[in-house]
Design brief:
The complex is a heterodimer. By secondary structure, chain A is mainly alpha-helical. Helices cover 67% and strands 5% of the residues of chain A. Chain A contains five helices and two strands. In chain A, strands 1-2 form a two-stranded antiparallel ribbon. Chain A starts with 5 loop residues before the first strand and ends in a 5-residue tail after the last helix. Chain B is of the alpha+beta class. The chains are: A mainly alpha, B alpha+beta. Chains A and B meet through helix 2, helix 3 and helix 5 of A and helix 4 and strand 18 of B.
């Protein structure tokens, strides 16, 4: 069985309602690059690492990432349905 | 036990208003004692004194409240008055208060929520009513922090307090205490789930604009130019049609009413999230009701009376839809202050439309500086120019 994976656009989508689309996509792209994650498909652990990194930012960006992380754990934590 | 709701509206001194409200609540609930009183008071009735007097009238009830920019029930709408929503039935309600929202939103939201019981035996459903300072610029932040602490099984409804368009100071409170720059929370434990509905009635009229310089809730530049300069330029033709000249706005209240007509719409999928500025800064920047990220793209939005009425009905339909076929005892309504600006004397028609969609249910609410609605599937919970309802099944 292949491991579950998540595209960057899917990860950005969880931030879009709070931060808007361009800003969310840019955040995910820049953070993935910063963490050395070059592939478009990300593991659950890599998604968590990206959100964890963004969560350390001040203000609305960090708060939105912390919140999204809790919801992503619920949605994806047990693997893609 | 059947849910009973009483609504009341009164004006005058705090003492006179309290007396009238207490009488109407007792009359509306009959022999039932209220578990919760939600109190919406204008700047004419200081909230701290109002809550303290009402708490003395109903010592067993949980009290939650905030200052407003207009008050209403299903019977009437008013200014310089107080509206009350009283709830009796199979509920257990606990409240919390947190201070210092602007400087430390984590601490403020945390202190309001952490003392609340996470479980009450026999009451499997939890819903939070969240009221926040309307001028702290922390709307989305406070909502997401509350949702993070509460977890996904606790839907949230509420609003940002108003101050009669004075744009000086807004107040929230619970029990007999009220504070500025705060967060007030009521956790409602119920035997049945409650229904939350949310809808806005705005559509875009501009091309896409980009926020190119922002910090916190202050937007300095749009498309590389001072934010207000761009806002005024892009909205001027529409505003002049309404007989308003953006270059002649003098007071903070006039500016806020202008922004209530012309707001930013941030695309979220096929819908728009509305984000109006709240105040102008002398350097040409604009202050918003929550943090705005650099790079955000938006279009300018506006509404009309027909869209406003339809969105009020739609919010009610969505709340009713969550409750299936159950009859509705009543609903709390958090309605953006912009609706009054847009509908003027027709504002009460929107309140009546909401009550009618809920089967002529009793409703009470206020005109707010931001609205809060967050269900389990949502990734954002702070709204502007929107109607939010929290409906209670009978």
């Amino acid at each position: 069985m292949s491991p579950k994976s998540y595209r960057r656009a899917e990860v950005a989508a969880v931030l879009v309602p709070a931060l808007g689309e361009p800003a969310s996509k840019k955040l995910i792209e820049e953070t993935a690059k910063h963490l050395g994650l070059e592939r478009d498909d990300l593991s659950f652990e890599e998604v968590m690492a990206i959100l964890e990194h963004i969560a350390s930012a001040p203000g609305i960006v960090g708060i939105a990432a912390r919140f999204s992380k809790t919801r992503v754990i619920l949605m994806w934590g047990s693997g893609r349905s | 036990m059947e849910t009973r709701v009483a609504t009341a509206l009164a004006s005058g001194s705090v003492q006179d208003a309290t007396r009238a409200l207490a009488k109407d609540v007792r009359s509306g609930l009959g022999d039932a004692a209220p578990q919760l009183l939600v109190v919406f008071g204008s700047t004419e009735q200081p909230l701290g004194e109002l809550l303290a007097r009402l708490q003395a009238e109903f010592p067993e009830a949980a009290l939650l409240g905030c200052s407003t920019a207009g008050e209403f029930t299903q019977r009437q709408e008013a200014n310089a008055s107080v509206s009350v929503f009283a709830l009796a039935g199979d509920y257990r309600v606990h409240t919390g208060l947190g201070a210092g929202l602007k400087e430390s939103p984590d601490a403020a939201v945390g202190s309001a929520i952490r003392a609340l019981p996470s479980k009450v035996e026999g009451y499997p459903h939890r819903t939070v009513v969240l009221l926040i300072d309307g001028l702290a610029g922390m709307g989305e932040e406070a909502t997401l922090l509350a949702a993070t602490l509460l977890g996904p099984d606790v839907p949230i409804a509420g609003a940002a307090a108003g101050d009669d368009w004075k744009v000086k100071s807004t107040v929230v409170g619970c029990g007999g205490r009220a504070i500025v720059d705060g967060v007030a929370v009521a956790m409602i434990h119920s035997k049945k789930p409650l229904g939350i509905g949310v809808a806005h009635g705005h559509r875009p009229f501009s091309d896409v604009l980009k926020i190119t310089k922002a910090q916190g809730n202050v937007v300095h530049e749009i498309d590389g130019r001072p934010a207000w300069e761009v806002w005024a330029e892009k909205t001027r033709p529409e505003a002049l049609k309404d007989g308003i000249d953006p270059d002649k706005l003098v007071t903070a209240g006039e500016s806020l009413q202008y922004f209530a007509r012309f707001e930013a719409g941030v695309a979220v999928g096929k819908e728009f999230k509305i984000r109006p500025p709240f105040f102008r800064i002398p350097d040409g920047s604009l202050g918003f009701s929550c943090g705005i990220v650099e790079g955000t793209e938006f279009r300018l939005m506006r509404s009309d009376p027909e869209l406003q009425l339809e969105s009020a009905r739609e919010a009610a339909r969505r709340a009713r839809g969550q409750l299936g076929d159950q009859p509705i005892a009543g609903a709390l309504v958090f309605d953006c202050a912009c609706r009054k600006v847009l509908l003027q004397d027709g504002f009460f028609s929107a309140v009546q439309a909401i009550s009618s969609e809920l089967g002529d249910a009793k409703v009470a609410g206020f005109e707010s500086y931001g609205e809060i609605a967050l269900n389990q599937q949502d990734f954002s919970g702070f709204h502007n120019a929107t109607t939010v309802l929290l409906a209670f099944p009978r």
